[in-house]
Amino acid sequence: MAALAALPLPRGHRIERVVVVMPAHNEEEHLEPALQALQQSADALHWVRPDVLVRATVVLDSCTDGSADIAAGFAATDPRVSVLTVGYRSAGASRAAGVRAAGIGVTGIGVARRRPPGQRKTPSPWAGRTWLANTDADSRVPENWLVRQLEFAEAGADAVLGSVEPDPAGMDPELLRRWREHHPFHEDHPHIYGANFGVRASAYLAAGGFARITSEEDRALVHGLRSRAFTVTATDSTRVMTSGRTHARAPHGFGAYLRTLGRALPPPTA
Predict the structure, then answer these.
(1) pLDDT by residue (tens digit) across 124-152?
(2) Distance CA 261, CA 245 (A)
(3) In this prediction, what percent of the chain has a pLDDT beyond 70?
(4) Looking at residues 200-206, what average pLDDT do you find?
(5) Boundaries of every domain in the chain
(6) pLDDT tens digits, residue range 91-112?
(7) Which CATH superfamily is domain 17-107+121-165+186-240 in?
(8) CA-closest candidate to residue 3, choices 217, 230, 228
């Protein structure tokens, strides 16, 4: 499908709506603290920007554990949270489904409009005022997560690449040390993490959205954004704590990378 033209937006375009997408595949161990952290971040944003509408979708992808019950409990008590069940076994497809569930697609945001035959598909103007914040069900976002993303967005960023830190709980200390050695924390870092990634909806649509692939859908989207000259900002000011497990959910995801990094460690001494 041909890429859509980006909407001409002035620098500092004000955000009116935030859509958070959190895919989950058998995350009963991590999902509750992940959603609690997200609620705290949404509360912090409401405190400084009560005019911004926040909605979060937990995308349960082929879950066979207690994740559905946990997500349903949050949705029952917090109107900002909704749940979508899919069977893709794909992080990219799950993220894309969560975005579509929020009404974000080539026909715009909200109710799809009928187009006359031959008319080109274009995103709604409101797509420029909607921010897509992406994280994972095994990750805990900081309280300032949404506030800082909107600050970057309204200063002109089309996408924000945040940093992550593996949770040291239960993680091999030497593996954590090696990870930190390879990933020093600083602004303008070179890394891309689906657990900490925000993008303006109009830019997301123009770049083709999340590809329906099992992993590295975040990298593919960022490549599409950069190839279209969108402004991509990398920051360590919204660092997310993510699982340090090495049994990966995605074949080339963060856990798989940690497992590969662990193979390079010297064998333990007797």
Answers:
(1) 547 889 999 999 999 999 999 999 999 99
(2) 12
(3) 78
(4) 95
(5) 17-107+121-165+186-240
(6) 999 999 999 999 997 544 433 3
(7) Spore Coat Polysaccharide Biosynthesis Protein SpsA; Chain A (3.90.550.10)
(8) 228
* Sign of CA pseudo-dihedral 121, 125, 126, 131: positive
Q: Taking the C-alpha atoms of 221, 224, 230 and 235 in order, what is their torsion angle to the nearest 10 degrees?
A: 40
> What crossing angle do the helices spanning 217-227 and 91-101 adopt, rounded to 10°?
70
Q: Give residues with Cβ within 8 angstroms of 97, minimum separation 6.
A: 59, 84, 86, 88
Cα distances (angstroms) measured from residue 268 to each of 27, 220, 265:
31, 37, 9
Q: Between the CA of residue 204 and those of 127, 146, 201, 218, 219, what are the distances in Å? A: 9, 17, 5, 11, 13
Confidence of residue 243 (pLDDT cuts 50, 70, 90): confident
* Single-letter amino acid code for the residue at 199: V
Residue 136 in contact with residue 21, Cβ under 8 Å? no
DSSP states along 225-267: HHHTT--EEE-STTPEEE---SS-SSTTSHHHHHHHHHHTSPP
Asked whether 147 and 48 are in contact (CB, 8 A), the reply is: yes
> What length does the chain have?
270
